[in-house]
Amino acid sequence: MLLASESKSDYNQGFKEYWSTFMAYKLLFVCLGNICRSPAAENIMNYLIEQENLHDQIICDSAGTSSYHIGSPPDRRMKDAASKRGMDFRGRARQFDWFDFEQFDLILAMDRENYQNILAVDTKGVYHHKVRLMCEFAREHPEKEVPDPYYGGQAGFDKVIDLLLDACNGLLTEIKQNNLN
Ligand code: 4NP
């Protein structure tokens, strides 16, 4: 039983948070290591969501298909590219998991290999409709995949930001049209 009014307002606040999380449209961005492209996509999307005051309605996360960098923050070169655009990239790498199919409404793969590796986790093929390639949403860039910048120079990281800004803007427009109340 709730006795103190403070506890009751805590309870109400907790319920409101639970409900908005439950009702929100949930996006998961996936690459190989979860230290370059997918945390960039997650943070850029959050930046755009914040600008439009939609943080109660859209929730973002990211993951890697590999276990190589579990627990690591975004790559320093990716953070440098972001800070040149006035963005601060946060988060810690985790590995993609079957449970993510249940948790998220839409799963965005950065390249075709990530896409195939995600589908391979769905052995019964019931969640394929939730998985798309990120570049499908780009309007100004012709690329079909977000290139892996890890073994290249700083220019590759800058390019990833440009491409993801385009794709995230296109994705947000589509979600606003089709998936929000
Ligand atoms: P990401 O980049 O998949 O965009 O996070 C990579 C990060 C690490 C490695 C490859 C790609 N790696 O081989 O360790």
Cα-atom radius of gyration: 17 Å
Give the spatial strand order of the biggest sheet.
Answer: 2-1-3-4
Can you tell me the overall shape?
globular
Helix count from the secondary structure assignment: 6
| N/C terminus separation | 34 Å
- Looking at the structure, the CATH topology is Rossmann fold
Mean pLDDT across every amino acid position: 94
**Count of individual domains:** 1
- Helix % is 40-55%
CATH class: Alpha Beta
Fold and architecture overview:
With 181 residues, the protein is α/β, with parallel strands linked by helices. The protein has one domain: 3-Layer(aba) Sandwich (Rossmann fold), CATH 3.40.50. Helices cover 45% and strands 12% of the residues. The protein contains six helices and four strands, in the order αβαβααβαβα. It has helices spanning 5-23, 37-51, 76-83, 99-103, 112-121, 154-178; strands at residues 25-31, 58-64, 106-109, 131-133. The chain has a four-stranded parallel β-sheet with strand order 2-1-3-4, with helices on both faces. It is globular and about 55 Å long. The protein starts with a helix and ends with a helix. The site of 4-nitrophenyl phosphate has 10 residues, from loops.
SSE order and pairing:
Layout: H1 5-23, E1 25-31, H2 37-51, E2 58-64, H3 76-83, H4 99-103, E3 106-109, H5 112-121, E4 131-133, H6 154-178
Parallel strand pairs: 1-2, 1-3, 3-4
The protein binds 4-nitrophenyl phosphate (4NP).
